[in-house]
Automatic annotation (TrEMBL):
Keyword list, A-Z: ATP-binding, Membrane, Nucleotide-binding, Transmembrane, Transmembrane helix
Organism: Lactobacillus panisapium
InterPro entries per the UniProt record, alphabetical: AAA+_ATPase, ABC1_TM_dom, ABC1_TM_sf, ABC_transporter-like_ATP-bd, P-loop_NTPase, Type_1_exporter
Every ABC transporter domain range: 325-523
A Pfam family assignment: ABC_membrane
Keyword presence, Transmembrane: yes
Protein name: ABC transporter ATP-binding protein
PROSITE patterns linked to this entry: ABC_TM1F (PS50929), ABC_TRANSPORTER_2 (PS50893)
Domain ABC transmembrane type-1 positions: 22-276
Molecular function GO terms recorded: ATP binding
Record carries keyword tRNA processing: no
Length: 523
C-alpha cells in the first residue's frame, strides 16, 4: 500500500523532476564530502600557489553546499505537500457513502495531515540522509582504499554494520508508532465531537465529565508516545556506543599514522572524523525515517487508502416502457449484520408525487439511499422507468449547507441561472426577510448571518436547490420537518409548479401533509 502511494506521489511530482533533484543532491553531497581531501591538499607541502588558490575556492564552494541544498529543496517540498494531500483526497472522494458514515471527520482530517507531514519530512530530511550516506560510503571507501585496501574494507564493513544495527532497532518500533498515531487521532476526534455537541454538554452541566474523558484520552496518548521514545532512546544509546568505539579506533590510528609523519595520514584522520560526525546524525535520522514510514503506513491503513469497495448502482435496470419505479424484492443489511429491508416490493408512479411513510427505523431513509445509488442491496432489483439513466437527487434529512455563497449553495454544483430569477424564488418561498437583496445571494455565506441560519431556512435553501436542479427523480427525506404550516403549503405549491414532470418520493411523518400527495406508500 505504501509503495503504491509513494509511487503515485512520485508520478504526480514528475519522475524527471525527482530524478533531477536526486542527481543534484548526489553532486552537492559529493562536493561537500570532498572537504577532508581538499583540506589535506591545502596543507600539502608540494602545492603551487595557483593550485592552493583553486583548492581554497573549491573548499569555499563545498562549505556553501548545505544552505544551497536547502534552497534547492523549497519548490520540491511544496510539491510534496500539495500532491501528498491531493492523492489521498482523490482516493477518499472515490469512496462510497458507507465510508463517510463509518469514518469520523476528525480522524480523516488528522490522518491526511499526518501522512502529508510525514511525506514532507521524508523528503526534506530522509531522502537527503540516504543520499548523504550513500555518497559518503562510496567516496570515503574509495579514498581510503586508494591509500590502504584493508583500511577501505574495514571502513566499509563498520559502516554497513552500523547501518544494520540502526535499521534493526528502528523496526522494533513499528507497532508502537502505529498505536501512538491512533491515540493522537483520538484526541482530534474527541475535539470534533465536543464541538458538535457543545450545546448538549453545556446544557447537561457536563464540563467535569467531559474533562475527565479528555484527560483519559490524553493520558493514553502520553503513555503510547513514551513507549515509542523509550525504544528510540535505547537505539540512540547503542548507536552512540558504536561511534565511541570508532572514535577510539581513530585515536589509535592517528597516533600510529601521524607519528610516522605520512603525508596522507591527515586525510585518513579527517575522513574518519567526518564519518563520525555524519554517522552520529544518521543513527537518529534512520530512526526518524522508519518512524515516518510507519506514520505513512498507519495513516494509509486508517484512511483505507487504495481499498476498493463494493461499487453500488449495479441493481438498476432501465425500462422505458414502464410507468413506475419498481422495487423488486430488495433486501439490505448494514455491515452484513443488521437486516433493515427484507424482500421489499413497492412501486412509485412515474412523474407523480408519492409519500413514503412508516415508523421510525423502518428503513425509509435507507430505501431512498438505495434508490439514489449510495448503497448496494444484498439482493433484489430496482427498475427505473426510463430508457437512459435518469438524473436522481436526494435531499438528506440532516443535510447542511456549504460554507460558500448562498447562490453557490442554491445553484450547486454550477447551474447557470439568472440572479433575478433565483431572487424571485427566494421571495416566493419567504426567505426575503433573511436574504434582503439579490446581491446578498452572491456576497453572503450561511455563516455570515447573525445567528446563523435556522433549520427551516436551511431546508428552504436546500429545497430551492432541488427546484433549480430539476432532477427526473427527486427523493426528499423529511424535507418539511422544520417548516411552519404556511411554508409547507408554499413548498408543495412550488413543487407542483416547478417540477411537474419529476417523479418525487418524499418521506413524511405528519399525517396532515398526506393531502398534498396523490399516492401514499407504506413501509
Ligand atoms: N449507517 C448506518 N449504519 C448502521 N445502521 C444504520 C445506519 N443507518 C441506519 N441504520 C439503521 O437502519 C435502520 C433503518 O434506519 P433508517 O434511517 O433507514 O430508518 P427510517 O425509517 O428512515 O427512520 P426514521 O423515521 O427514524 O428517520 C435503523 O435501525 C438504523 O439504526
Amino acid at each position: 500500500m505504501i509503495s503504491n502511494y509513494l509511487k503515485k506521489l512520485i508520478l504526480k511530482i514528475g519522475v524527471a523532476r525527482v530524478m533531477a533533484f536526486i542527481v543534484l543532491l548526489i553532486i552537492s553531497y559529493a562536493v561537500y564530502f570532498l572537504q577532508p581531501y581538499l583540506i589535506n591538499q591545502l596543507f600539502a607541502q608540494k602545492q603551487t600557489q595557483t593550485n592552493r588558490v583553486i583548492v581554497l575556492l573549491l573548499l569555499a564552494i563545498s562549505l556553501m553546499m548545505m544552505p544551497l541544498i536547502n534552497c534547492l529543496n523549497n519548490g520540491f517540498i511544496q510539491a510534496v505537500r500539495k500532491y501528498s494531500k491531493q492523492e489521498l483526497w482523490a482516493d477518499i472522494t472515490k469512496k462510497p457513502l458507507s465510508y463517510f458514515a463509518r469514518q469520523s471527520v476528525g480522524k480523516v482530517q488528522s490522518y491526511i495531515k499526518d501522512v502529508s507531514f510525514a511525506c514532507r519530512e521524508l523528503e526534506q530530511t530522509s531522502l537527503a540522509v540516504v543520499i548523504q550516506m550513500a555518497v559518503m560510503l562510496l567516496l570515503y571507501t574509495i579514498l581510503l582504499s586508494l591509500q590502504n585496501i584493508w583500511l577501505g574494507l574495514a571502513y566499509l564493513l563498520f559502516f554497513i554494520g552500523y547501518l544494520l544495527v540502526s535499521i534493526m532497532m528502528a523496526r522494533k518500533n513499528r507497532q508502537n508508532v502505529a498505536s501512538s498515531l491512533s491515540s493522537a487521532s483520538k484526541v482530534n476526534e474527541y475535539i470534533v465531537d465536543y464541538y458538535r455537541n457543545v450545546e448538549t454538554i453545556m446544557s447537561s452541566d457536563a464540563a467535569k465529565y467531559e474533562q475527565d474523558k479528555m484527560d483519559k484520552i490524553l493520558a493514553h496518548e502520553q503513555s503510547s508516545f513514551i513507549k515509542v521514545q523509550a525504544i528510540t532512546n535505547k537505539a540512540a544509546l547503542l548507536q552512540q556506543l558504536m561511534i565511541v568505539i570508532l572514535a577510539c579506533v581513530i585515536a589509535g590510528i592517528s597516533q600510529f599514522l601521524l607519528g610516522t609523519h605520512d603525508s596522507q595520514s591527515l586525510s585518513i584522520v579527517l575522513i574518519l572524523l567526518y564519518s563520525i560526525l555524519n554517522l552520529s546524525g544518521f543513527g537518529t535520522q534512520y530512526l526518524a525515517i522508519e518512524e515516518l514510514l510507519n506514520r505513512i503506513r498507519a495513516g494509509l491503513a486508517e484512511l483505507e487508502y487504495g481499498k476498493v469497495e463494493k461499487v453500488p448502482l449495479t441493481c438498476f435496470d432501465l425500462d422505458g416502457s414502464k410507468q413506475e419505479i419498481i422495487i423488486n424484492g430488495i433486501s439490505y443489511s448494514y455491515h452484513g449484520q443488521h437486516l433493515v429491508l427484507s424482500n421489499l416490493k413497492l412501486n412509485f408512479k412515474k412523474g407523480e408525487m408519492s409519500a413514503l411513510i412508516g415508523p421510525n427505523g423502518a428503513g425509509k431513509s435507507t430505501l431512498l439511499k438505495i434508490i439514489s445509488g449510495f448503497y448496494q442491496p444484498d439482493k433484489g432489483q430496482i427498475i427505473l422507468p426510463f430508457s437512459d439513466r435518469p438524473t436522481i437527487m436526494y435531499v438528506a434529512q440532516d443535510a447542511s449547507l456549504f460554507n460558500r455563497s448562498l447562490m453557490a449553495n442554491i445553484c450547486y454544483p454550477d447551474h447557470q441561472v439568472d440572479l433575478q430569477k433565483i431572487y424571485g424564488l427566494v421571495q416566493e418561498i419567504g426567505l426575503d426577510s433573511l436574504i434582503k437583496s439579490p446581491t446578498d445571494l452572491i456576497d453572503k455565506t450561511p455563516g455570515d448571518f447573525k445567528n446563523k441560519i435556522s433549520g427551516g431556512e436551511e431546508q428552504k435553501i436546500l429545497f430551492l436547490r432541488a427546484i433549480i436542479t430539476k432532477p427526473q427523480i427527486l427523493l426528499l427525506d423529511e424535507f418539511t420537518s422544520n417548516l411552519d404550516e404556511k411554508s409547507i403549503a408554499t413548498v408543495y405549491k412550488m413543487l407542483k409548479q416547478y417540477l411537474p414532470k419529476s417523479t418525487i418520493i418524499s418521506v413524511i411523518h405528519r399525517t396532515a401533509e398526506l393531502r398534498y400527495y396523490k399516492h401514499v406508500v407504506e413501509l
